[in-house]
Amino acid sequence: MRDLPASDLKTVLHSKRANLYYLEHCRVLVNGGRVEYVTDAGKRSLYWNIPIANTTSILLGTGTSITQAAMRELAKAGVLVGFCGGGGTPLFSANEVDVEVAWLTPQSEYRPTEYLQAWVKFWFDDELRLMAAKALQTTRMQRLRAEWAQRAWVEAGFQVDLSRLDDLIARSQAEVNRAEDTTALLTEEARLTKALFKLAVDATGYGDFTRAKRGTGTDPANRFLDHGNYLAYGLGATATWVLGLPHGLAVLHGKTRRGGLVFDVADLIKDAAILPQAFLSAMRGDEDQQFAATALRR
User: Which of 95, 177, 140 is nearest to 269 (CA)?
Assistant: First the structure.
């Protein structure tokens, strides 16, 4: 196999890449010039190729190891690597994102500067930063409405009352427009999310539900919500890193919170894709891997 230049490995834009891997009980290494993960099947070892040029992030869970050669190849392709616990949660070792995340970011290239320069032009102005936060919340609601209206959700068993959803979004958009600071925006975000949980419960016939923080070990919907949110954080970390935007330059989740920008970006997909799939998977009795695979396809 001929060596590919790093520029070829980065041909696929991160926004167009198809894969995010969660791996456990395996070794990640280079075999025959390819990055592969190896699992044991009795006395045999099974090798599975990782298409690194079409991969955004790799989460390494319980019982994993990775070689220096594999990290070198992943860096060439611009793939983010993170260490986490079982099922993808929690993400370990404080560094870039809050107190639970360690993203090993590739350092094999100089990232573009134009996005950071455009970001800092407004970020140090409180009013402009608030406008950016409102724009993100508006985009979040637009994506939510478009996603939940898709026929695929109805066919999967998520039959949401769109008139109720429209009323919620209209009210929330009005509150976002009149918000005078990020505290008001965060308060409205929490209110809307609570109302969306109620909509999801009704849409799936889930029954009694109370959102538990870090709900692993409680009811399945809470566990899947936690799992899916961490997957969204991985995608958010990848997107902001690729653009060269430091994770500390948040517009909504606080200027002093480490990794706040990752949470800002993750909000764009958490309600739209993760929330409904968490309740559907809980109703179906899915395993964690089934949920993750389905959620990432959304």
Answer: 140
Would you list the DSSP string of 129-157? Answer: HHHHHHHHHHHHHHHHHHHHTSHHHHHHT
* Cα–Cα distance measured from residue 157 to residue 286, given in angstroms and rounded to the nearest whole number: 14
Q: Quote the CA–CA distance of 249 and 136 in Å, as a whole number.
A: 14
Q: Rounded to whole angstroms, how far apart are CA atoms 150 and 159?
A: 10
Alpha-carbon gap, residue 280 to 156, rounded angstroms: 8
CA dihedral 95, 101, 104, 109 (to 10 degrees): -70
> Taking a C-beta distance cutoff of 8 angstroms, is the pair 19, 51 a contact?
yes
pLDDT per position as a tens digit, 106-140: 655 567 789 999 999 999 999 999 999 999 999 99
Tell me the pTM.
Answer: 0.71
The two structure tokens encoding residue 143: 């994506």
Cβ neighbors of 92 (< 8 A, separation 6 or more) are 83, 84, 85, 100, 101, 102
| Residue at token pair 């430091």 | 246
